[in-house]
Amino acid sequence: MDQPTPSSPAEIVVQMCGIVKHFPGVLANDHVDFELRKGEIHALLGENGAGKSTLMNILAGLYHPDGGSILVNGKPVSFSSPRQAIQAGIGMIHQHFMLVPSQTVAENILLGLDEPRFFMQLSKYEQEIAKLSERFGLKVDPRAHVWQLSVGEQQRVEILKMLYRGANILIMDEPTAVLAPTEVDELFNTLRAMVAQGKSIIFISHKLHEVSQIADRVSVLRRGVSTASGVETRSMTKTDLARLMVGREVIFSLEKNPCQPGKVVLQLEDLWAENDKGLKALRGLSLQVRQGEIVGLAGVAGNGQRELADVITGLRKAEKGRVLVDGDDITNRSVKTGIHHGVSHIPEDRTHVGSAPNLSVTDNVIMKKYKHAPIARGWMMNAIAATNYASELKQAYEIIAPNLETPVRLLSGGNLQRVILAREISSQPALMIAMQPTRGLDVGAIEGVHRLLLAQRDAGAAVLLISEELEELIDLSDRVVVIYEGAIMGEVANGNIQHIGLMMTGVRQDQLADHMEAAHE
Amino acid sequence: MNKLLDRLPFRIELEPRLVQPPRWYPWVLSLLSVVVALLIGAIVLALAGGNPWASYAHIARASFGDIGVFSDTLVKAIPLMLVGLACTLAFRMKLWNIGAEGQFFIGAFGASAVVLLPVLPEDAPRWLFIITMIVFGMAAGAIWGFIPGFLKARFQVNEIISTLMLNYIAISWNNYFIFAIWSDGGFQMSKVFPRNAWMPRLTDYVDTIPMFRGLTTHFGLILALVAAVVVWLILYRSQWGYEIRLVGDNPRAAQYAGISITRNTVLVMMLSGALAGLAGMSEISGVVHRLQGAISPGYGFTGIIVAWLAKLNPIAVVPVSILFGALILAGREIQPSGIPKLLQGIILVSLIASDFLMRYRIRVHRKDLLKEAK
Questions:
Q1: Most CB contacts within 10 A, which of A140, A321, A518, B257?
Q2: The CATH number of A12-95+166-246 is which of 3.30.540.10, 3.90.79.10, 3.40.50.360, 3.40.50.300?
Q3: pLDDT score at B44
Q4: Residues 6+ apart with CB under 8 A from B4
Q5: Does A313 contact chain B (CB < 8 Å)?
């Protein structure tokens, strides 16, 4: 573990040596070494399933290693529960938040602690929490209920929870996966504030640009084996990191045929709709998507993207305005009507909306086909036809599953997304609404999803791509429109990131020139 | 507690299952949990001063000992099968129909109405009587299921509460007719139905097959077995069943696939009620032959246990019902009669507990004591 470290012989707070962890049929960690210094941000990079989360779950006391040793502050430790890990100052913030939606922020943070004992003098603790959140720039109201909070705010609550418990070493499992670009910047500021005050942070990620942006050092895992350990981030290029991670050269640019837009498929006229909390989410939104083009919808999360997808697909009622598909008015009609008009939908939330976790792969891919021949046969279903159809898709979309009877909750994130993509694309949609189709996927899988979307476009589908990854939007889309507070600010065809960025903050296209001038002066 | 565990020479660890267990696994697990339950029951029996093995042998003899008692076991199992199927169907959609007992009583009422209202003249042919009673019994049960289904679909009324409360209404409704309108000479029961309204029993054929002497197993068994196959076909081979399973597993995904949850809620509750109603009809027409108060020793509630024990598999409901029929029958033989009820309870608890092993696996690690000592 002797990396050339000319800067400072910093104190080592965590040292993991030769960690081995087996899962049935998988060697998740194969003699992995890892070391964390005080006051650094150390990125742990790797594809999905490379063993990053396993390694960190071991450090956080969730798993017990089959072999190897862990030193924390120089002392050997063996945690059998997360509680012991947090006592040693190690706290992990998981990808899926563990919060009670109906309780307030303060109640969530105090949950499970010895103090307060019986009488809850919340105001005292609320002040403490407010102080703590100010110290690290974690803006959140301790009295707010968790269900009212945005994803970014919920993450801050999770971080506060760990800080309140006295964590000095924070493990963040893909913290940016759920955040909007501006929220990512805020998170990074918080992380910098925390290391400046002596905390040490492990940052699990598979996004290369984030790693080069925030981390001091980086360790890379590939298929359970460490391919780089504690290398200075400055000395690595994105291509170097990608090679260490994937084991081959990754092509970052996509080959794209020229766009040949045909007739208008989706026409939205002056749409108004409310979000779940009864606030206006769409305010007079109008938009067109044509055959054979990908329209990217850029915007900070929570500006009406989800509500827009819901209204188009019939999951949410519009208060005003019209949704036309191929010239037919399907405003406020059932989801079924949309499906009949060839609207397919890749939902943002794969596990809670896009799939039935305990049903088999077969049952999940026929979700929109079970009423059509050959799978439908009168009132009954043709089980053989369903199985054949599923095995075709499994092969065509390279879904990795032990068999077709496997419940999809046992599939990895990338494979689950393939199941959903297979289902949605194989219906040969006229219009595809793809919401965050690559969120949480690794580099290789993202490449595959991009190819599939482009193939849809070339086959003549109209694609509305809703994403928070600007790079992805610019790479894939033929034009990018920007949504802000439920209305379209303008359209960019040449991938001008500066224009998109300004419009994302609420500047209309016709005002762009003024703002650019103001910025120059 | 933790300190104590630390002293053990091995460490027990729970791991979530990452792969699906093999097909035979749930069956073996269920069987093992019944065995474990019997062992726990044996301890309780021994503590109470009885001889557990003798008791178990007695239960087995009293329920399966010869063809006569086995026939009695089947008679008890028939309503359990139908009610178990009713619960299986509803539970598949995560509709917690606790009202099978009430639907059973109303089904019995509907079937009785055919004779007592009367819908058919006393000399109508037997086949017409039975078909009409089936239709009336199922329709009455379906109405009793429709009420909570509609309330749930339209106003989000919790179906656990509404079905539970409807049980009491159903029983009181029946009592009103037994005590007042259809009372037979002041007794709290109706007159005996004409022979034409009885479902055929094995013993009715004693002239052609002498072996059937005294066997009371009735046509309801055929109805129950057909119902089991039909429910299986609905759940696993029909489009509607697919919708039920999808809504049950993830209502949001079902909505996203364009499936109407409100419509399915009402329909499933109605069919569930109809099956429980059929159980009531079969009990009235096959066993009791009149409408009276004590027609169910809690079949509707035991059906909930049966459905869980069968892991919501309609075919498995059949053998499980026979097991529970045997336990009900044993209550007659064993004193105190609470013992079979106690066993039922222990079996349910151990089964529900065994579900844990479907999702987790236990691994035992040997500890390297020498290494830790260092």
A1: B257
A2: 3.40.50.300
A3: 87
A4: none
A5: yes
Q: Which of residues 6-65 of B touch A (CB under 8 A)?
A: 11, 13, 15, 18-20
Provide the residue ranges of all domains of chain A, joining segments of one domain with +.
12-95+166-246, 260-342+429-521, 354-427
pLDDT at B109: 96
Q: Span A260-342+429-521: which CATH code?
A: 3.40.50.300
CB pair distance less than 8 Å for B249 and A359: yes
A254 interfacial to chain B (CB closer than 8 Å): no
Q: Which residue has the tokens 């981030």?
A: A233
- Interface check for B246 against chain A (CB to CB < 8 A): the answer is yes
pTM above 0.90, yes or no: no
* Interface touch A359/B255, C-beta < 8 Å: no
Specify the pLDDT at position A487.
92
Instruction: Residue A106: name the closest of A135, A139, A151, A141 by CA.
Output: A141
All residues of chain A having their beta carbon less than 8 Å from the beta carbon of residue B257 are 335, 339, 367-368
Q: Model confidence over A141-161: pLDDT tens digits?
A: 888 898 888 888 888 999 999
Q: What is the predicted ipTM? A: 0.82
| DSSP states along A81-119 | SHHHHHHTTEEEE-SS----TTSBHHHHHHTT-SSS-SS
Whether A260-342+429-521 and A12-95+166-246 are alike in CATH topology: the answer is yes
> What are the distances in angstroms from CA A40 to CA A99, B132, B246, B306?
28, 80, 47, 59
A431, A144 contact by CB (below 8 A): no
